[in-house]
Amino acid sequence: MPPKQRPSPSADPLTKTGPSARRQKQNREAQKRYREKRNRLYKVNLMRKVFKCVYYEDINQHLVELQEENMSLTGMVHQSELFEASTRAAVEHVHPVHHQTIPPAAELQIPHHPADSQRLQDFVSDDIAWDELLAKSDGTKALAG
Predict the structure, then answer these.
(1) Where is this region: Disordered (predicted)?
(2) Are 19 and 28 in contact, with CB atoms under 8 Å apart?
(3) Looking at the domain assignment, is residue 116 inside a domain?
(4) List of residues 6+ apart from 16 with CB closer than 8 A
């Protein structure tokens, strides 16, 4: 004998009006859980979007502050360059700069005129003559003493 099977509730279509009371309760609970989960995900997504907006606003504000600081620093650099240029112009006005390229050794050398070299030789020979005279006078004093 085959095992006894229970008749299915849908077997008699005339008495069936819908899901059982237990199944209706389960469906309501499932729908409630679905709505709660959907609302929770919606709120999380909304909060994420709000956070991004606030984050972008903070970044935008910081960017504006950096741009203002950059503009003020650029202005300060420009003023510094203008001051440096005016100072350089004032110094060149007071002390004109020679724009020749003169090597340092050449600056120390004084060009001599032929007459100047003769004067220099005369000066050196006068110096030698005085040294000889002084030596002779010292020798005569030593002999006299």
Answers:
(1) 1-36
(2) no
(3) no
(4) 9, 10
Give me the phi and psi of 72, to 5 degrees please. Answer: -65, -40
Tokens of 57: 């606003």
Distance CA 44, CA 66 (A): 32
Q: Do 112 and 120 touch, CB atoms closer than 8 A? A: yes
pTM greater than 0.85: no
Q: What amino acid is encoded at 15 in this protein? A: T
Residue at 65: amino acid letter = E
Whether residue 11 is contained in a domain is answered as: no
Which residues constitute the domain of residue 39?
Answer: 20-96
**Is residue 61 included in any domain, yes or no?**
yes
Q: Is residue 13 part of a domain?
A: no
> In angstroms, what CA-CA distances link 108 with 41, 102, 111, 121, 141?
88, 10, 10, 20, 44
How many structural domains comprise the chain?
1
Q: What does the pLDDT look like over 45-93, one tens digit per residue?
A: 999 999 888 888 999 999 999 999 999 999 999 999 999 999 988 888 8
CA 63 to chain centre: 15
